[in-house]
């Protein structure tokens, strides 16, 4: 395996997860804001590593595997971290987290199964999936920051965006399941 810059960016996205987690819980000034900056940098690499790999012809099977894993780990760990930190959390927060993480597990399993059938392209990432990811990552970043700045209630704004992300999550899952349905019926 050749370690290219795009692959390094994906690996760094995974490596930053425990750092964000630790900073989130550290009782030092601005730790959550530093965690947010690192989280945002990791989110930017989600777009940048794939773009570089395609542009420079440095795509690899390992990179294609690791990229979505890195994204899902980053989102899932941060959602659980945020949920844990909200001792008096709105019960809807738990539902949104369950929807988002449940969808990620379901679609990952579906893609793996479809790959075994040689039909992975039927459940390739769509524009709605990319939009869902953008809303999720933005909402999570706002919620990690938490401290109101310039009079903006970041956590509340992120929580509102998480509703949009959850709706897009369900919509994209329905699209993927619908695309896979003919194969699922055949295999039943």
UniProtKB/TrEMBL annotation:
InterPro entries: CDP-alcohol_PTase-I, CDP-OH_P_trans, CDP-OH_PTrfase_TM_dom, CDP_ALCOHOL_P_TRANSF_CS, Phosphatidylglycerol_P_synth. It catalyses: a CDP-1,2-diacyl-sn-glycerol + sn-glycerol 3-phosphate = a 1,2-diacyl-sn-glycero-3-phospho-(1'-sn-glycero-3'-phosphate) + CMP + H(+). GO terms for biological process: glycerophospholipid biosynthetic process. It is found in: Membrane. The keyword Ubl conjugation does not apply. It is a multi-pass membrane protein. One of its GO terms (molecular function) is CDP-diacylglycerol-glycerol-3-phosphate 3-phosphatidyltransferase activity. Keywords: Lipid biosynthesis, Lipid metabolism, Membrane, Phospholipid biosynthesis, Phospholipid metabolism, Transferase, Transmembrane, Transmembrane helix. Pathway: Phospholipid metabolism; phosphatidylglycerol biosynthesis; phosphatidylglycerol from CDP-diacylglycerol: step 1/2. Its EC number is 2.7.8.5. GO terms for cellular component: membrane. The chain crosses the membrane at residues 7-28, 91-110, 122-145, 157-177. It comes from the Bacteria. Gene3D superfamilies: 1.20.120.1760. Its main location: membrane. Belongs to the CDP-alcohol phosphatidyltransferase class-I family. NCBIfam families: pgsA (TIGR00560). This is CDP-diacylglycerol--glycerol-3-phosphate 3-phosphatidyltransferase. It comes from Stenotrophobium rhamnosiphilum.
């Amino acid at each position: 395996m050749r370690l290219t810059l795009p692959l390094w960016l994906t690996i760094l996205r995974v490596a930053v997860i425990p750092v964000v987690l630790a900073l989130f819980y550290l009782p030092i000034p601005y730790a959550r804001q530093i965690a947010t900056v690192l989280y945002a940098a990791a989110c930017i690499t989600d777009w940048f590593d794939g773009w570089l790999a395609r542009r420079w012809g440095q795509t690899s099977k390992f990179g294609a595997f690791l990229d979505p894993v890195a994204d899902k780990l980053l989102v899932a760990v941060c959602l659980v971290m945020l949920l844990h930190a909200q001792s008096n959390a709105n019960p809807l927060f738990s539902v949104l987290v369950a929807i988002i993480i449940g969808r990620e597990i379901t679609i990952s399993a579906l893609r793996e199964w479809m790959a075994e059938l040689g039909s992975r392209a039927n459940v390739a990432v769509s524009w709605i999936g990319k939009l869902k990811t953008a809303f999720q990552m933005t909402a999570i970043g706002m919620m990690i920051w938490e401290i109101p700045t310039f009079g903006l209630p970041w956590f509340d704004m992120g929580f509102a965006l998480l509703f949009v992300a959850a709706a897009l999550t369900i919509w994209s899952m329905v699209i993927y399941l619908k695309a896979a349905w003919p194969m699922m019926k055949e295999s039943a």
